[in-house]
Amino acid sequence: MTLHGKLFIGSTLATGNGDTTRPTSPLDNRLLEPGFHQAAETDVDAAMSLAEEAFTAYRRTSGEQRAGFLEAMSNEIMELGDALIDRGHLETGLPKPRLVGERGRTCGQLKMFADLVRDGSWTDARIDTALPDREPLPKPDLRRMLSPLGPVVVFGASNFPLAFSVAGGDTASALAVGCPVVVKAHSAHPGTAELVATAIGKAVAGCGMPPGVFSMLHGRGSVVGIALVKHPLTCAAGFTGSREGGRALFDAAVARPVPIPVFAEMSSLNPVFLLPEALQRRSEAIAEGLTESFTLGVGQFCTKPGLVFGVSGDALTRFQEQLCARVTAAAPATMLHAGICATFHEGLSHARQVSGASVLAESSQAADPGQTHGEPVVMQTDAETFLSQPQLAKEVFGPFTLVVAGQSIEELEKVAAGLEGQLTATLHGTEADLAEAGGLVRILERKAGRLIVNGFPTGVEVCPSMNHGGPYPATTDARFTSVGTAAIQRWARPICYQDFPAELLPAELQDSNPRGVRQLRDGVVS
Amino acid sequence: MTLHGKLFIGSTLATGNGDTTRPTSPLDNRLLEPGFHQAAETDVDAAMSLAEEAFTAYRRTSGEQRAGFLEAMSNEIMELGDALIDRGHLETGLPKPRLVGERGRTCGQLKMFADLVRDGSWTDARIDTALPDREPLPKPDLRRMLSPLGPVVVFGASNFPLAFSVAGGDTASALAVGCPVVVKAHSAHPGTAELVATAIGKAVAGCGMPPGVFSMLHGRGSVVGIALVKHPLTCAAGFTGSREGGRALFDAAVARPVPIPVFAEMSSLNPVFLLPEALQRRSEAIAEGLTESFTLGVGQFCTKPGLVFGVSGDALTRFQEQLCARVTAAAPATMLHAGICATFHEGLSHARQVSGASVLAESSQAADPGQTHGEPVVMQTDAETFLSQPQLAKEVFGPFTLVVAGQSIEELEKVAAGLEGQLTATLHGTEADLAEAGGLVRILERKAGRLIVNGFPTGVEVCPSMNHGGPYPATTDARFTSVGTAAIQRWARPICYQDFPAELLPAELQDSNPRGVRQLRDGVVS
């Protein structure tokens, strides 16, 4: 498969503003072919206008039709075969088995949303029938359901080049609702993006969807990304990336004449609290699990545990020794791109300079800059230093974690209460530990979107109960998740129909319920 | 009942910054007693700190406990008896029967949210049970439910001194979820606000709720209101009022280091489309219903129909004559306060100056400034003028509406497509009209939160299917409603619990389901 490097404006390939950029392989720092065309303002406008045009027809497709489209996307992505895995490996440095797994997750997500919209109950259909004889005033017939917002902009994330990128969860959930999608491809894996966009284009054509339902642009986030968010036809945006990047998009979105929602997932330390008896009894297993979790994917997960809290004492000392042994033995590995690698080493260097914090262990192997290596590092400090040095509470994206020793559970509760918003928070405890941990749990419920007992935060299950979100700065909107079936709610708003004739009502709200969706009828679930 | 004019900081009465202001009765422009103390920054901080303190206990109360509290609020408000109605009439000029009706609605809302939280299904409890033997990775046990955001700020609205004010829908829904509330009382009805706050205080004490669960401040919106929204402990805010006021609060909220949601309901023209055959057959009834709707409450409803569209011709001319007769006979009436009355007359005066628009009819009785009168007025224009004069698409809050004549349905569709976001849009049509109206309905679905056939937008039913919201500038967030059971969703966010022991789980997520809530268990509704 030869890559063309062009922009996808619906079914048309475009060459942008004339500039092209070539990605670099993090495996060996070599420039890759081809050059990828950078979008001009006119491309942004063309893609958004086509999306708006497509919305008229696309919002009226049935759940069944959209389900078929999502499944076709999944099939077309599988049809790309090894070419996708090979290019992904070249552009991201991620091992091929990981990419095969991620492709499975991506297709699984598409199928999950297909099932969800085929079922149709996500529309939260509600019917309150009329009471024409009610006194003093008759009650009208009222019916309400969730409907798609309109064209959505999705930003590909570098750390999941498939599952949070061109056909990732944001795109899948927005298309499932009935929103056309314009993707801003991540500049680190434009070829991978092009392959997936080509697969989506085939699904669009094969399913007879309006071409504007999907477009994809290349270009700089600060230019093309901001222009997409500011475009008057854009109704919402989804982003996963840095805190600075997400906040810039959010700020642009809320300063518009007509503000729009931006779902930006940005930054999280994912604190882990080791309770005394668990540390006493299972320090070895925790050290093993923690090392695996914070080095998984070279530490490039939003849910990487970057902070570990325990109470000072023999058990914590033993745990640190066990952790030390494992981290020393852990090998450096290729990070996603030179920028992330540089930011990782900058973060490390800042942390090392904090007085009162020191390196507990680091990989015994030197990191090779020629292979864009990140090396596993653990640092240690005490709770007092942690509280007084805000630098230590900044996310270091990569295989790094910080062990913080407190004098008591009370001191750790105080530290917990001062944390910023998080995607996750974790407790390790025995039955006896947990019986005493209610206070800490109450604090962490205010801080995080997902709380975990005796596990690790990496590994985000895709299911109805998942919440992948959390208070700022974990995300810009803690009320929504970007993973799991509830992710669909980000792209919808309710519309109420009063005294409508059946013929003008959406199928989901008709008495005959031709799509067989769950309806709340006069307060009773049907 | 003697009014004290003080601030409610939980159960403590405070005197603010030393300044007091006295409200004016719109009935006769006379200053009323007492002076009301204006909040200082320290009062804002005290109220928010107490709210945060109360949240720890209040969020853990059961739905049953909060239901009892909401019902006690309703009872205490009824206990105020005629004193509330009398003071309300004096401060707002609204007729006493209207205030009696609004009190009924207010208490009805409190009871509706009591029923809703007693039932508990609003928490959207989801359970995905573990699959420890799943390959390649075991699936953890995941459970998710909606939880309260934290302290909420509510702004009393002038046009519903009970139902959208101190104990109105925002307060009721926030308290129902488990969020403490700090109310910024509206300066036009501070005595009415004090009476209701006193009733709530009794309910707080009687139900043993933490005192900080409710506070109420007086003060200027641009000072105290903004300070409340900017306070770091504030987690969300609800507002109903002007477009400028709502946007100022929104801008302050999103510029915070930690942005928070502001649900501002602001501005809506509520367009009404009169289709040809309906106009032919029922012009008299439509003229009657429209006059009643746009003059109801002296036109001071957010859902007042302020724009009426029809196709030029004999039927529209006849309708305009019928409307003319009714509006000429309609009497001026007292508006809520001098500021609203002045803004109404300013809006009228601007509309009158638009070339191509003219007065179709106005009340034959002169408006008495000594009674803060607003007089019913209808103007007319054609679609071309409407499209070229943005002034005509500005809300004139009060008993005013504008009839716009188009050359064809196609021209009216073009006008509809250019409208800003609306709370409602209405169609009047016969069966034959509606069979042709699909295109117009599709356009209006993009524009409004509620679509009405053969009715009028005033009169907002409080029920599960209601959506009182809409695209900007109708509200700052079209994804949520401020009326009906779904209003509760504004104050909640999901929290997910992974592999939690039953003892640490909220009751709603336990297998034993002690509160008997609806659970989505492994994808199946129980």
Element layout with pairings:
2 copies of one chain form a homodimer.
Chain A: E1 7-9, E2 12-14, E3 20-21, E4 36-37, H1 41-58, H2 63-79, H3 82-92, H4 96-119, E5 125-128, E6 142-148, E7 152-155, H5 169-177, E8 181-184, H6 190-206, E9 214-217, H7 221-230, E10 236-240, H8 243-254, E11 262-265, E12 271-274, H9 276-295, E13 307-311, H10 314-329, E14 333-334, H11 338-352, E15 358-362, E16 373-374, E17 377-382, H12 383-388, E18 400-406, H13 409-418, E19 422-428, H14 431-435, H15 438-447, E20 448-453, E21 492-498, E22 519-521, E23 524-525
Parallel strand pairs in A: 5-22, 7-8, 7-10, 8-9, 10-11, 12-13, 12-19, 13-18, 17-18, 19-20
Antiparallel strand pairs in A: 1-2, 3-4, 5-6, 6-21, 14-16, 15-17, 22-23
Features:
homodimer, 526 residues, alpha/beta, five-stranded mixed sheet, 15 helices, 38% helix, 19% strand
What is the structure about, briefly put?
Two copies of one chain form a homodimer. With 526 residues, chain A is an alpha/beta fold. In chain A, 38% of the residues lie in helices and 19% in strands.
